């Protein structure tokens, strides 16, 4: 009988293994939340449900897992990611997106897209999102997929000047939707199924 107790082991490297430089700013496609939902509405008529992929990049400090987040301003945090074009492969899209967001010109970073750690659906052209499709919803407007990303042992990142790249410990994210939003604040639960090895 196969064992059901096997745990997935994830190797984490210390934050100090990574160097962070800067590069030209990268701006959002939409100037406001209202503009984002308006574009979503317009594109839905042509392409259907929006697909978004995001990367969960883990490091450790003092043997505590930390998630790398992009910070815009003083209180907005997000995972690096982007919209998937119609017909585009999700994993290849995420690799390209991570390189465009955090890579340096002329460098190649080997992003290990490991496995899916979260699904979120947006039922309407509004902020609320859920880790399931609500029973009354037949045509959600957006599907967000979060993938665990294996980082190389050492690397140099280039962060757009209008962002900061911050390492947030899991204990700070846990149950902290006011600070990080509903998706990021549930990462500790989603990541708890892994065992971590600290280099």
Descriptive account of the structure:
This protein is 23% helix and 38% strand. It is of the alpha/beta class and 199 residues long. Strands 3, 4, 5, 6, 7, 8 and 10 form a seven-stranded mixed β-sheet that branches. A two-stranded parallel ribbon has the order 1-11. The longest helix is centred in the first third of the chain and has 15 residues, at 33-47. The two termini are 33 Å apart. The relative contact order is 0.27.
Report mean pLDDT, rounded to a whole number: 94
Helix/strand class:
alpha/beta
Helices, by number, come to: 5
Alpha-carbon Rg, integer:
17 Å
Overall form: globular
Q: What proportion of the residues form beta strands (DSSP E)? A: 35-45%
User: How many distinct beta strands?
Assistant: 11
List SSEs in N-to-C order.
EEHEEEEHEEEEHHHE
Helix content: 10-25%
Cα-to-Cα separation, first versus last residue: 33 Å
* Low-confidence segments: none
Biggest sheet details:
7 strands, mixed
Helix and strand arrangement:
Elements: E1 8-12, E2 18-23, H1 33-47, E3 50-61, E4 64-72, E5 76-78, E6 81-84, H2 90-102, E7 112-122, E8 142-150, E9 155-160, E10 164-169, H3 170-173, H4 177-184, H5 187-191, E11 194-198
Parallel strand pairs: 1-11, 2-9, 3-8
Antiparallel strand pairs: 3-4, 3-6, 4-5, 4-10, 7-8
Please sum up the structure shown:
The protein is of the alpha/beta class. It has helices at residues 33-47, 90-102, 170-173, 177-184, 187-191; strands at residues 8-12, 18-23, 50-61, 64-72, 76-78, 81-84, 112-122, 142-150, 155-160, 164-169, 194-198.
């Amino acid at each position: 009988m196969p064992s059901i107790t096997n745990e997935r082991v994830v190797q984490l490297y210390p934050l100090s293994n990574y160097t962070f430089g800067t590069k030209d700013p990268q701006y959002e496609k939409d100037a406001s939340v209202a503009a984002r939902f308006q574009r979503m509405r317009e594109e839905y008529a042509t392409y259907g449900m929006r697909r978004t992929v995001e990367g969960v990049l883990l490091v450790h400090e003092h043997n505590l897992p930390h998630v790398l987040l992009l910070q815009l301003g003083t209180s907005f945090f997000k995972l690096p990611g982007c919209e998937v074009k119609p017909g585009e492969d999700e994993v290849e899209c995420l690799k390209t997106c991570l390189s465009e967001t955090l890579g340096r010109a002329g460098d190649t970073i080997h992003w290990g897209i490991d496995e899916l750690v979260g699904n979120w659906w947006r039922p309407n052209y509004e902020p609320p999102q859920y880790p399931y499709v609500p029973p009354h919803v037949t045509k959600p407007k957006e599907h967000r997929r979060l993938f665990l990303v294996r980082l190389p042992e050492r690397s140099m990142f280039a962060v757009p000047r209008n962002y900061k790249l911050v390492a947030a410990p899991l204990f700070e994210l846990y149950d902290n939707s006011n600070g990080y939003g509903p998706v990021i604040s549930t990462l500790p639960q989603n990541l708890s199924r892994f065992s971590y090895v600290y280099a």
